[in-house]
Amino acid sequence: MDIKLKGSIILIVLLGALYYAFPTYRAYQPGVDPQTVDNKVNLGLDLQGGMYLDIEIKVEEAVKEIVRRTSLELEDLLIDEQVDFVEVRQATNSLILEMEPGKKVNLEIAPYDRFLEQFEMNVQDDLTYLKLKSEEAQLIRENSVSQALEVLRNRIDSLGISEPSLQKQGADNIVIQLPGLKDRDRAIELIGPQAILQFQIVNNNATPSNYNRLTEVVKYEEVWDKTANKLISKRPYVLDKKILMTGEFIRDARVRIDSRDNRPYVAL
């Protein structure tokens, strides 16, 4: 082959390589957001560093928490209905309701049936044994992992990281790879806290400087700039301390339109 032709081919190959490599070079320069650059190669942890996390979801704790909260709600309902009972005890994946001697209560009707459908019932004299169904316990375990995966994905999206990787591993582990992560403390702050859905009444007549500290609490809605990864604003809300309902009692949630004023609302 002619040396000039060979040199031309080599030059063309080098120019082509530089053309395709330049977007990647530019994307990872200081002060440049990789997400704003097209046609780049997404570098993994081995090439640009970052954070690798292997998170274990405590699925059995999720099951225990369901049993604990069901116990508290059952006690509240029995008191509200003026039922004569001794106590509601918690055991492994189960509850034990002890009634006053000679007293009875039908837990298969309202208002108890709506949240006790997850349990198998066995009545022996003054004791009622409520055991969490095995399929329900397994569903709680699976849901706790899938919900954690969704929550973590939403939190990581706010970090503005290009091509994060979140994968379920085994029955109760989630592996997270955050290539190019610079603010590790911010990531841990976002990923670490447990997510719990709680419903509380908002007191629109109170302010953070004027509210009842015995029965109310102040919480904040945070608005973040995803691009700059900065907190823009915090909006305070005064809430009743009493938690009316938690997320595990919700079977389904959908957006509906109110026929009275055509406004959207969430139907639970």
Characterization of this structure:
Among the domains are: 3-41; 60-133, Gyrase A, domain 2 (2-Layer Sandwich), CATH 3.30.1360. With 268 residues, the protein is of the alpha+beta class. 32% of the residues lie in helices and 29% in strands. It is built from six helices and 13 strands. α3 (59-80) crosses α5 (134-157).
Fold blueprint:
Blueprint: H1 3-27, H2 45-48, E1 50-56, H3 59-80, E2 85-91, E3 94-99, H4 113-116, E4 119-124, E5 127-132, H5 134-157, E6 165-169, E7 173-179, H6 184-191, E8 198-199, E9 216-225, E10 230-240, E11 245-246, E12 254-257, E13 264-267
Antiparallel strand pairs: 1-7, 2-3, 3-5, 4-5, 6-7, 8-11, 9-10, 12-13
Helix pairs in contact: 3-5
How far from one another are the termini?
76 Å
CATH topology of one domain: Gyrase A, domain 2
Low-pLDDT stretches are: none
Instruction: Please give the CATH architecture of one domain.
Output: 2-Layer Sandwich
Helix residue percentage: 25-40%
Q: What is the makeup of the main sheet?
A: 4 strands, antiparallel
Order of helices and strands: HHEHEEHEEHEEHEEEEEE
- The tally of beta strands, per DSSP, is 13
CATH class of one domain: Alpha Beta
Instruction: Please state the overall shape, judged from the principal axes of the Cα atoms.
Output: elongated
Number of helices: 6
**Rg of Cα set:** 28 Å
What is the beta-strand fraction? 25-35%
Widest sheet: strand order?
2-3-5-4
